[in-house]
Amino acid sequence: MKWLKIINVQPVALADIPLIDIHDFRAGMIHRMHSGLRLVQFFAHPQEDTTVTLFAVLADDGQASLYVAGAKVARGADYPAVTPNVPAAHVFEREIYEQSGLLPQGHPWLKPVRKGIAGIDPSEMPYEFFRMNGDEVHEVGVGPIHAGVIEPGHFRFSCTGETVHHLEIELGFQHRGLEALMIRNQHPLYQMKLAETIAGDTVIGHGTAFVNAMEALGGVRCPRRAEQIRVIALELERVGVHLGDLSALSGDVAYLTGQSVFGAMRTQAINTSMVISGSRFGRGLLTPGGVRFDISGAMKRDILSTVDELQDKTELAAEVLFTSSSVLSRFERTGIISEATARNIGLVGPAGRASGIPIDVRADFPFGAYASFPVHAFSLKSGDVFARAYLRYVEIIQSLRIIREQVETLGDGPVSVNTGPIKGGQFVVSLCEGWRGEIAHTVITGRDGRCARYKIKDPSFNNWFGLALAVRMEGISDFPLCNKSFNLSYCGFDL
Q1: 318 with 461: CB under 8 angstroms?
Q2: Are residue 349 and residue 263 in the same domain, yes or no?
Q3: Alpha carbons 421 and 154: distance in angstroms, whole number
Q4: For the chain, what percent of residues have pLDDT higher than 90?
Q5: What is the pLDDT of residues 224-251, one digit of tens each?
Protein backbone atom coordinates (compact mmCIF):
# COMPACT_ATOMS: atom_id res chain seq x y z
CA MET A 1 0.00 0.00 0.00
CA LYS A 2 1.26 3.48 -0.85
CA TRP A 3 2.35 5.89 1.86
CA LEU A 4 0.92 9.41 1.88
CA LYS A 5 3.24 11.92 0.20
CA ILE A 6 3.29 15.40 1.75
CA ILE A 7 5.60 18.39 2.04
CA ASN A 8 6.96 20.29 5.02
CA VAL A 9 4.29 22.12 7.05
CA GLN A 10 1.42 20.71 4.97
CA PRO A 11 -1.58 19.83 7.14
CA VAL A 12 -3.47 16.74 6.03
CA ALA A 13 -6.54 14.97 7.32
CA LEU A 14 -5.60 12.30 9.82
CA ALA A 15 -8.06 10.00 8.06
CA ASP A 16 -6.04 10.29 4.85
CA ILE A 17 -2.92 8.75 6.37
CA PRO A 18 -2.78 5.07 5.35
CA LEU A 19 -3.06 2.61 8.23
CA ILE A 20 -1.17 -0.53 7.25
CA ASP A 21 -0.75 -3.96 8.76
CA ILE A 22 2.24 -3.79 11.10
CA HIS A 23 4.29 -6.28 9.07
CA ASP A 24 3.66 -4.39 5.81
CA PHE A 25 4.33 -1.13 7.64
CA ARG A 26 7.70 -2.40 8.88
CA ALA A 27 8.62 -3.85 5.50
CA GLY A 28 7.67 -0.58 3.81
CA MET A 29 9.82 1.43 6.20
CA ILE A 30 12.84 -0.79 5.65
CA HIS A 31 12.42 -0.89 1.87
CA ARG A 32 12.07 2.87 1.57
CA MET A 33 15.01 3.62 3.83
CA HIS A 34 17.21 1.12 2.03
CA SER A 35 16.17 2.93 -1.16
CA GLY A 36 17.51 6.24 0.12
CA LEU A 37 14.79 7.77 2.30
CA ARG A 38 15.65 9.02 5.77
CA LEU A 39 13.86 8.50 9.08
CA VAL A 40 12.53 11.80 10.46
CA GLN A 41 9.96 10.70 13.04
CA PHE A 42 8.82 7.35 14.43
CA PHE A 43 6.51 7.43 17.44
CA ALA A 44 3.47 5.91 19.14
CA HIS A 45 0.10 7.60 19.53
CA PRO A 46 -2.16 5.86 22.09
CA GLN A 47 -5.82 5.77 21.08
CA GLU A 48 -8.92 6.05 23.24
CA ASP A 49 -9.61 2.35 22.73
CA THR A 50 -7.13 -0.44 23.48
CA THR A 51 -4.84 0.27 20.52
CA VAL A 52 -1.73 2.29 19.79
CA THR A 53 -0.98 3.77 16.38
CA LEU A 54 2.61 3.82 15.23
CA PHE A 55 3.43 6.68 12.86
CA ALA A 56 6.54 7.00 10.72
CA VAL A 57 7.68 10.03 8.74
CA LEU A 58 10.36 9.45 6.09
CA ALA A 59 12.16 12.14 4.09
CA ASP A 60 13.14 12.20 0.44
CA ASP A 61 15.57 15.08 0.71
CA GLY A 62 16.26 15.29 -3.02
CA GLN A 63 12.57 15.69 -3.87
CA ALA A 64 11.53 17.84 -0.86
CA SER A 65 8.94 15.19 -0.01
CA LEU A 66 7.84 13.46 3.17
CA TYR A 67 6.12 10.06 3.32
CA VAL A 68 3.77 9.19 6.15
CA ALA A 69 2.01 5.99 7.18
CA GLY A 70 0.74 4.37 10.34
CA ALA A 71 -0.01 0.95 11.83
CA LYS A 72 -2.44 0.04 14.60
CA VAL A 73 -1.19 -2.34 17.28
CA ALA A 74 -2.90 -3.60 20.41
CA ARG A 75 -1.63 -2.08 23.64
CA GLY A 76 0.99 -4.25 25.30
CA ALA A 77 1.63 -6.17 22.08
CA ASP A 78 4.92 -6.59 20.27
CA TYR A 79 6.05 -6.09 16.70
CA PRO A 80 9.20 -7.01 14.76
CA ALA A 81 11.83 -4.36 15.44
CA VAL A 82 13.01 -2.15 12.58
CA THR A 83 16.40 -1.46 14.17
CA PRO A 84 18.19 -4.68 13.09
CA ASN A 85 17.63 -3.56 9.48
CA VAL A 86 17.82 0.22 10.00
CA PRO A 87 20.14 1.22 12.88
CA ALA A 88 18.87 4.82 12.77
CA ALA A 89 15.61 3.58 14.31
CA HIS A 90 17.21 2.31 17.52
CA VAL A 91 16.50 5.29 19.81
CA PHE A 92 13.05 5.84 18.29
CA GLU A 93 12.07 2.25 19.09
CA ARG A 94 13.47 2.44 22.60
CA GLU A 95 11.37 5.55 23.14
CA ILE A 96 8.27 3.86 21.69
CA TYR A 97 8.67 0.97 24.12
CA GLU A 98 9.21 3.32 27.04
CA GLN A 99 6.25 5.56 26.24
CA SER A 100 3.67 3.04 25.02
CA GLY A 101 4.77 -0.43 26.15
CA LEU A 102 4.93 -1.73 22.57
CA LEU A 103 7.82 -4.19 22.47
CA PRO A 104 10.07 -4.04 19.38
CA GLN A 105 10.87 -7.74 19.29
CA GLY A 106 14.48 -8.35 18.32
CA HIS A 107 15.76 -4.88 19.21
CA PRO A 108 19.48 -5.32 19.95
CA TRP A 109 19.76 -2.78 22.77
CA LEU A 110 16.38 -2.17 24.40
CA LYS A 111 17.36 0.10 27.26
CA PRO A 112 15.54 3.04 28.84
CA VAL A 113 15.76 6.38 27.09
CA ARG A 114 14.68 8.68 29.90
CA LYS A 115 13.36 6.48 32.70
CA GLY A 116 14.90 4.17 35.26
CA ILE A 117 18.15 6.10 35.25
CA ALA A 118 17.79 8.59 38.07
CA GLY A 119 16.04 6.11 40.38
CA ILE A 120 13.05 8.43 40.81
CA ASP A 121 10.33 5.83 40.27
CA PRO A 122 10.98 2.30 41.61
CA SER A 123 8.38 0.89 39.18
CA GLU A 124 10.55 1.80 36.20
CA MET A 125 12.86 -0.71 34.57
CA PRO A 126 16.32 -0.08 36.08
CA TYR A 127 19.11 0.83 33.74
CA GLU A 128 21.94 -1.66 33.26
CA PHE A 129 25.19 -0.42 31.80
CA PHE A 130 27.16 -2.22 29.14
CA ARG A 131 30.11 -4.16 30.55
CA MET A 132 33.43 -5.07 28.99
CA ASN A 133 35.34 -8.07 30.30
CA GLY A 134 39.10 -8.20 30.74
CA ASP A 135 41.67 -7.82 33.46
CA GLU A 136 42.97 -4.54 31.98
CA VAL A 137 39.56 -2.97 31.38
CA HIS A 138 38.62 -0.14 33.67
CA GLU A 139 35.62 2.18 33.74
CA VAL A 140 35.59 5.95 34.09
CA GLY A 141 32.30 7.53 35.09
CA VAL A 142 31.59 11.22 34.53
CA GLY A 143 28.42 12.90 35.82
CA PRO A 144 25.51 13.15 36.08
CA ILE A 145 26.56 16.11 38.25
CA HIS A 146 29.17 18.16 36.42
CA ALA A 147 31.63 20.83 37.45
CA GLY A 148 30.09 23.49 35.21
CA VAL A 149 26.60 24.98 35.18
CA ILE A 150 25.24 22.37 32.78
CA GLU A 151 22.45 19.86 32.93
CA PRO A 152 22.74 16.28 34.19
CA GLY A 153 24.06 13.49 32.02
CA HIS A 154 26.18 10.42 32.72
CA PHE A 155 29.11 9.30 30.57
CA ARG A 156 30.65 5.89 31.27
CA PHE A 157 33.90 5.05 29.47
CA SER A 158 35.20 1.50 29.14
CA CYS A 159 38.96 1.81 28.64
CA THR A 160 42.21 -0.03 28.48
CA GLY A 161 44.85 2.39 29.56
CA GLU A 162 44.04 5.76 27.95
CA THR A 163 42.11 4.24 25.02
CA VAL A 164 38.31 4.39 24.97
CA HIS A 165 36.75 1.20 23.62
CA HIS A 166 33.16 2.08 24.43
CA LEU A 167 31.26 5.11 25.69
CA GLU A 168 27.76 4.81 27.06
CA ILE A 169 25.86 8.09 27.35
CA GLU A 170 22.82 8.13 29.57
CA LEU A 171 20.48 11.08 29.89
CA GLY A 172 16.92 11.30 31.13
CA PHE A 173 17.67 12.55 34.62
CA GLN A 174 15.19 15.41 34.36
CA HIS A 175 11.82 13.73 33.56
CA ARG A 176 10.43 16.96 32.10
CA GLY A 177 7.29 15.53 30.46
CA LEU A 178 7.29 18.40 28.00
CA GLU A 179 5.22 16.71 25.29
CA ALA A 180 2.51 15.98 27.84
CA LEU A 181 2.58 19.61 29.02
CA MET A 182 1.88 20.70 25.43
CA ILE A 183 -1.38 18.71 25.64
CA ARG A 184 -2.31 19.58 29.21
CA ASN A 185 -2.52 23.36 28.76
CA GLN A 186 -3.24 24.48 25.20
CA HIS A 187 -3.29 28.22 25.67
CA PRO A 188 -1.20 29.55 22.74
CA LEU A 189 1.00 31.72 24.98
CA TYR A 190 1.72 28.80 27.32
CA GLN A 191 2.56 26.49 24.41
CA MET A 192 4.76 29.18 22.87
CA LYS A 193 6.71 29.49 26.13
CA LEU A 194 7.08 25.70 26.31
CA ALA A 195 8.38 25.57 22.73
CA GLU A 196 11.00 28.18 23.61
CA THR A 197 12.25 26.01 26.50
CA ILE A 198 12.60 22.72 24.62
CA ALA A 199 16.29 23.56 24.27
CA GLY A 200 17.29 26.87 25.83
CA ASP A 201 19.98 27.57 23.23
CA THR A 202 17.55 26.90 20.36
CA VAL A 203 14.70 29.24 21.24
CA ILE A 204 14.15 30.45 17.68
CA GLY A 205 14.69 27.01 16.12
CA HIS A 206 12.06 25.21 18.19
CA GLY A 207 9.87 28.30 18.32
CA THR A 208 9.84 28.45 14.52
CA ALA A 209 8.84 24.80 14.24
CA PHE A 210 5.99 25.43 16.70
CA VAL A 211 4.56 28.58 15.10
CA ASN A 212 4.80 27.08 11.61
CA ALA A 213 2.81 24.05 12.78
CA MET A 214 0.16 26.15 14.53
CA GLU A 215 -0.26 28.45 11.53
CA ALA A 216 -0.60 25.49 9.17
CA LEU A 217 -3.24 23.88 11.37
CA GLY A 218 -5.08 27.20 11.64
CA GLY A 219 -4.98 27.82 7.91
CA VAL A 220 -3.09 31.12 8.09
CA ARG A 221 0.24 32.41 6.85
CA CYS A 222 2.14 35.12 8.66
CA PRO A 223 3.03 38.30 6.73
CA ARG A 224 6.09 38.37 4.51
CA ARG A 225 7.83 40.94 6.69
CA ALA A 226 7.37 38.68 9.73
CA GLU A 227 8.78 35.72 7.79
CA GLN A 228 11.89 37.74 7.03
CA ILE A 229 12.32 38.80 10.66
CA ARG A 230 12.01 35.15 11.68
CA VAL A 231 14.81 34.26 9.26
CA ILE A 232 17.00 37.05 10.63
CA ALA A 233 16.42 35.80 14.18
CA LEU A 234 17.06 32.15 13.27
CA GLU A 235 20.31 33.01 11.52
CA LEU A 236 21.44 35.25 14.38
CA GLU A 237 20.87 32.29 16.70
CA ARG A 238 23.01 30.10 14.43
CA VAL A 239 25.79 32.70 14.24
CA GLY A 240 25.83 33.25 17.99
CA VAL A 241 26.02 29.59 18.96
CA HIS A 242 28.54 28.68 16.25
CA LEU A 243 30.82 31.51 17.40
CA GLY A 244 30.47 30.30 20.97
CA ASP A 245 31.37 26.78 19.87
CA LEU A 246 34.49 27.97 18.04
CA SER A 247 35.44 29.79 21.23
CA ALA A 248 34.95 26.64 23.33
CA LEU A 249 36.79 24.44 20.82
CA SER A 250 39.70 26.89 20.90
CA GLY A 251 39.76 26.69 24.68
CA ASP A 252 39.73 22.89 24.62
CA VAL A 253 43.03 22.88 22.70
CA ALA A 254 44.52 25.75 24.78
CA TYR A 255 44.29 28.29 21.95
CA LEU A 256 43.30 31.07 24.34
CA THR A 257 43.34 33.89 21.78
CA GLY A 258 40.66 32.13 19.74
CA GLN A 259 38.68 31.43 22.89
CA SER A 260 38.62 35.12 23.77
CA VAL A 261 38.05 36.51 20.26
CA PHE A 262 35.28 34.14 19.22
CA GLY A 263 33.65 34.53 22.63
CA ALA A 264 33.57 38.31 22.26
CA MET A 265 32.02 37.99 18.79
CA ARG A 266 29.36 35.67 20.17
CA THR A 267 28.36 38.45 22.54
CA GLN A 268 27.96 40.83 19.59
CA ALA A 269 25.68 38.36 17.82
CA ILE A 270 23.40 37.58 20.74
CA ASN A 271 23.26 41.25 21.75
CA THR A 272 21.85 41.90 18.27
CA SER A 273 19.05 39.44 19.06
CA MET A 274 18.47 41.40 22.26
CA VAL A 275 18.14 44.65 20.29
CA ILE A 276 15.34 43.08 18.24
CA SER A 277 13.41 41.22 20.94
CA GLY A 278 14.73 42.30 24.33
CA SER A 279 16.23 38.85 24.90
CA ARG A 280 19.71 37.68 23.91
CA PHE A 281 18.19 34.28 23.12
CA GLY A 282 15.19 35.64 21.21
CA ARG A 283 12.56 34.77 23.80
CA GLY A 284 9.25 36.50 23.25
CA LEU A 285 9.91 37.33 19.59
CA LEU A 286 7.82 34.65 17.89
CA THR A 287 4.07 34.22 18.08
CA PRO A 288 1.58 32.27 15.96
CA GLY A 289 0.65 34.63 13.16
CA GLY A 290 3.93 36.55 13.04
CA VAL A 291 6.37 38.25 15.38
CA ARG A 292 5.87 40.52 18.38
CA PHE A 293 8.63 43.01 17.54
CA ASP A 294 9.40 44.90 14.35
CA ILE A 295 12.77 46.08 13.03
CA SER A 296 12.97 49.85 12.65
CA GLY A 297 15.12 51.80 10.21
CA ALA A 298 17.71 52.57 12.87
CA MET A 299 17.83 48.91 13.91
CA LYS A 300 18.38 47.90 10.29
CA ARG A 301 21.45 50.14 10.09
CA ASP A 302 22.79 48.76 13.37
CA ILE A 303 22.24 45.15 12.29
CA LEU A 304 23.98 45.69 8.95
CA SER A 305 26.92 47.38 10.68
CA THR A 306 27.22 44.48 13.13
CA VAL A 307 26.99 41.90 10.33
CA ASP A 308 29.79 43.59 8.37
CA GLU A 309 31.98 43.79 11.47
CA LEU A 310 31.31 40.16 12.44
CA GLN A 311 32.15 38.94 8.94
CA ASP A 312 35.50 40.75 8.88
CA LYS A 313 36.43 39.56 12.36
CA THR A 314 35.25 35.98 11.78
CA GLU A 315 37.21 35.60 8.56
CA LEU A 316 40.38 36.89 10.18
CA ALA A 317 40.01 34.83 13.38
CA ALA A 318 39.12 31.67 11.43
CA GLU A 319 42.12 32.05 9.14
CA VAL A 320 44.41 32.10 12.16
CA LEU A 321 42.56 29.26 13.89
CA PHE A 322 42.53 26.89 10.95
CA THR A 323 46.15 27.48 9.93
CA SER A 324 47.59 26.98 13.41
CA SER A 325 49.65 23.80 13.48
CA SER A 326 48.98 23.25 17.19
CA VAL A 327 45.21 23.53 16.61
CA LEU A 328 45.23 21.31 13.53
CA SER A 329 47.23 18.63 15.34
CA ARG A 330 44.32 18.27 17.76
CA PHE A 331 41.42 18.85 15.34
CA GLU A 332 42.45 16.69 12.38
CA ARG A 333 41.74 12.94 12.44
CA THR A 334 40.19 13.20 15.92
CA GLY A 335 36.72 11.79 16.58
CA ILE A 336 36.08 10.52 13.05
CA ILE A 337 32.59 9.46 11.96
CA SER A 338 32.61 7.99 8.45
CA GLU A 339 29.87 8.83 5.96
CA ALA A 340 28.59 5.25 6.04
CA THR A 341 28.31 5.29 9.83
CA ALA A 342 26.73 8.75 9.82
CA ARG A 343 24.05 7.58 7.38
CA ASN A 344 23.41 4.35 9.27
CA ILE A 345 22.80 6.08 12.59
CA GLY A 346 20.98 9.07 11.08
CA LEU A 347 23.24 12.02 11.93
CA VAL A 348 21.77 15.43 11.10
CA GLY A 349 22.94 19.03 11.03
CA PRO A 350 26.61 20.11 10.99
CA ALA A 351 27.59 16.76 12.50
CA GLY A 352 26.07 14.95 9.51
CA ARG A 353 27.32 17.47 6.96
CA ALA A 354 30.86 17.13 8.37
CA SER A 355 30.66 13.43 7.45
CA GLY A 356 29.55 14.03 3.88
CA ILE A 357 25.74 14.11 4.26
CA PRO A 358 24.58 17.37 2.61
CA ILE A 359 21.12 17.68 4.18
CA ASP A 360 19.73 20.97 5.46
CA VAL A 361 16.03 21.68 5.98
CA ARG A 362 16.50 25.25 4.73
CA ALA A 363 17.71 23.90 1.39
CA ASP A 364 15.76 20.63 1.14
CA PHE A 365 12.41 21.55 2.75
CA PRO A 366 12.34 25.36 2.65
CA PHE A 367 9.81 27.07 4.92
CA GLY A 368 8.68 30.68 5.30
CA ALA A 369 10.99 33.19 3.65
CA TYR A 370 13.56 30.46 2.92
CA ALA A 371 11.38 29.44 -0.03
CA SER A 372 12.40 32.66 -1.81
CA PHE A 373 16.20 32.48 -1.75
CA PRO A 374 18.88 29.77 -2.00
CA VAL A 375 20.57 28.16 0.97
CA HIS A 376 23.48 25.82 0.27
CA ALA A 377 24.02 22.68 2.35
CA PHE A 378 27.81 22.74 2.60
CA SER A 379 29.47 19.46 3.54
CA LEU A 380 32.90 17.95 4.10
CA LYS A 381 34.08 14.36 4.00
CA SER A 382 36.59 13.89 6.81
CA GLY A 383 34.02 13.53 9.61
CA ASP A 384 36.49 14.67 12.29
CA VAL A 385 36.62 17.52 14.80
CA PHE A 386 38.23 19.71 12.14
CA ALA A 387 35.29 19.23 9.76
CA ARG A 388 32.72 19.89 12.47
CA ALA A 389 34.58 23.05 13.49
CA TYR A 390 35.30 24.33 9.98
CA LEU A 391 31.68 23.89 8.91
CA ARG A 392 30.66 26.18 11.75
CA TYR A 393 32.84 28.89 10.25
CA VAL A 394 31.39 28.30 6.77
CA GLU A 395 27.84 28.41 8.12
CA ILE A 396 28.53 31.61 10.07
CA ILE A 397 29.59 33.36 6.86
CA GLN A 398 26.53 32.07 5.00
CA SER A 399 24.21 33.09 7.83
CA LEU A 400 25.67 36.61 7.86
CA ARG A 401 25.00 36.84 4.13
CA ILE A 402 21.42 35.70 4.66
CA ILE A 403 20.86 38.23 7.46
CA ARG A 404 22.26 41.02 5.29
CA GLU A 405 20.00 40.07 2.36
CA GLN A 406 16.90 39.89 4.53
CA VAL A 407 17.56 43.20 6.27
CA GLU A 408 18.27 44.99 2.98
CA THR A 409 15.09 43.63 1.35
CA LEU A 410 12.80 43.83 4.37
CA GLY A 411 9.37 44.51 2.94
CA ASP A 412 6.62 46.78 4.14
CA GLY A 413 3.45 45.72 5.87
CA PRO A 414 2.32 44.24 9.17
CA VAL A 415 4.35 41.82 11.26
CA SER A 416 1.45 39.73 12.57
CA VAL A 417 -2.06 38.57 11.73
CA ASN A 418 -4.80 36.99 13.79
CA THR A 419 -4.79 33.21 13.76
CA GLY A 420 -7.91 31.18 13.17
CA PRO A 421 -9.18 28.17 15.10
CA ILE A 422 -7.16 24.99 14.72
CA LYS A 423 -8.91 22.41 12.58
CA GLY A 424 -9.78 19.03 14.01
CA GLY A 425 -8.57 15.65 12.81
CA GLN A 426 -5.38 17.03 11.28
CA PHE A 427 -1.77 15.85 11.03
CA VAL A 428 1.18 18.12 10.28
CA VAL A 429 4.96 17.76 10.25
CA SER A 430 6.92 20.98 10.83
CA LEU A 431 10.63 20.82 10.03
CA CYS A 432 13.11 23.59 10.82
CA GLU A 433 16.89 23.69 10.52
CA GLY A 434 18.14 24.74 13.92
CA TRP A 435 21.82 25.41 14.45
CA ARG A 436 22.30 21.77 15.62
CA GLY A 437 20.35 20.41 12.67
CA GLU A 438 16.90 19.15 11.81
CA ILE A 439 14.14 19.96 14.29
CA ALA A 440 10.88 18.05 13.79
CA HIS A 441 7.54 18.83 15.45
CA THR A 442 4.63 16.55 14.55
CA VAL A 443 1.17 17.57 15.72
CA ILE A 444 -2.04 15.55 15.67
CA THR A 445 -5.34 17.25 16.49
CA GLY A 446 -8.46 15.57 17.83
CA ARG A 447 -11.96 16.08 16.50
CA ASP A 448 -12.39 19.12 18.77
CA GLY A 449 -9.38 20.88 17.26
CA ARG A 450 -7.24 20.46 20.35
CA CYS A 451 -3.78 18.91 20.16
CA ALA A 452 -4.03 15.19 20.85
CA ARG A 453 -0.34 14.44 20.29
CA TYR A 454 2.64 16.78 20.12
CA LYS A 455 5.81 14.91 19.14
CA ILE A 456 9.11 16.74 19.38
CA LYS A 457 12.49 15.72 18.00
CA ASP A 458 15.54 17.83 18.73
CA PRO A 459 18.59 17.06 16.54
CA SER A 460 20.37 15.85 19.68
CA PHE A 461 18.02 12.86 19.63
CA ASN A 462 19.75 11.76 16.42
CA ASN A 463 23.27 12.76 17.32
CA TRP A 464 24.11 11.65 20.88
CA PHE A 465 24.95 8.15 19.66
CA GLY A 466 27.28 9.73 17.08
CA LEU A 467 29.32 11.25 19.90
CA ALA A 468 29.54 7.83 21.57
CA LEU A 469 30.94 6.33 18.36
CA ALA A 470 33.28 9.27 17.68
CA VAL A 471 35.41 8.59 20.77
CA ARG A 472 35.94 4.88 20.17
CA MET A 473 39.66 4.08 20.00
CA GLU A 474 40.47 7.69 20.91
CA GLY A 475 42.40 8.81 23.96
CA ILE A 476 40.07 9.65 26.82
CA SER A 477 41.64 13.11 27.01
CA ASP A 478 40.14 13.85 23.56
CA PHE A 479 36.59 13.38 24.83
CA PRO A 480 36.02 17.04 25.83
CA LEU A 481 37.10 18.12 22.34
CA CYS A 482 34.86 15.56 20.61
CA ASN A 483 32.01 16.45 22.92
CA LYS A 484 32.21 20.16 22.12
CA SER A 485 32.51 19.46 18.39
CA PHE A 486 28.99 17.97 18.60
CA ASN A 487 27.69 20.31 21.36
CA LEU A 488 24.49 18.39 21.97
CA SER A 489 21.58 19.28 24.21
CA TYR A 490 20.67 17.51 27.43
CA CYS A 491 17.29 19.20 27.83
CA GLY A 492 16.49 18.85 24.10
CA PHE A 493 16.78 15.10 24.65
CA ASP A 494 15.19 14.94 28.13
CA LEU A 495 11.70 15.85 26.98
Answers
A1: no
A2: yes
A3: 43
A4: 86
A5: 999 999 999 999 999 999 999 999 999 9
| Cα separation, 225 vs 205, whole angstroms | 18
Residue 253 belongs to domain with CATH number: 1.10.645.10
Residues 84 and 183 in one domain: no
pLDDT digits over 18-66, tens only?
999 999 999 999 999 999 999 999 999 998 778 999 999 999 999 999 9
Residue 115 domain flag = no
Dihedral (Cα; 214, 220, 224, 229), 10-degree rounding: -20
* Longest pairwise C-alpha distance within the chain: 71
Tell me the average pLDDT of the chain: 94
Residue 470 lies in a domain: no
Last residue of one domain, picked from the residues 67, 88, 105: 105
Convert the pLDDT of each residue in 103-153 to its tens digit.
Answer: 999 999 888 888 766 566 677 777 788 888 988 999 999 888 887 778 889
Summarised one tens digit per residue, pLDDT across range 281-338 is 999 999 999 999 999 999 999 999 999 999 999 999 999 999 999 999 999 999 999 9
- The pLDDT tens digits for 472-483 are 999 999 999 999
Is residue 280 situated within a structural domain? yes
The verdict on whether omega for the bond into residue 144 sits within 30 degrees of 0, i.e. cis, is yes
CB of 164 within 8 A of CB of 178? no
pTM exceeds 0.90: yes
Assign 3-class secondary structure to the chain: CCCEEECCCCCEEHHHCCECCHHHHHHHHHHHHHCCCEEEEEEEEECCCCEEEEEEEEEEHHHCEEEEEEEEEECCCEEECCCCCCHHHHHHHHHHHHHHCCEEECCCCCCCCCCCCCCCCCCCCCCCCCCCCCCCEEEEEECCCCCCCCCCCEEEEEEECCEEEEEEEECCCCCCCHHHHHHHCCCHHHHHHHHHCCCCCCHHHHHHHHHHHHHHHHCCCCCHHHHHHHHHHHHHHHHHHHHHHHHHHHHHCCCHHHHHHHHHHHHHHHHHHHHHHCCCCCCCCEECCEECCCCCHHHHHHHHHHHHHHHHHHHHHHHHHCCCHHHHHHHCCCCCCCHHHHHHHCCCHHHHHCCCCCCCHHHHCCCHHHHHCCCCCCCCCCCCHHHHHHHHHHHHHHHHHHHHHHHHCCCCCCCECCCCCCCCCEEEEEEEEECCEEEEEEEEECCCCCEEEEEEECHHHHHHHHHHHHCCCCEHHHHHHHHHHHCCCCCCCCC
How far is it, in rounded angstroms, from Cα 48 to Cα 283?
36
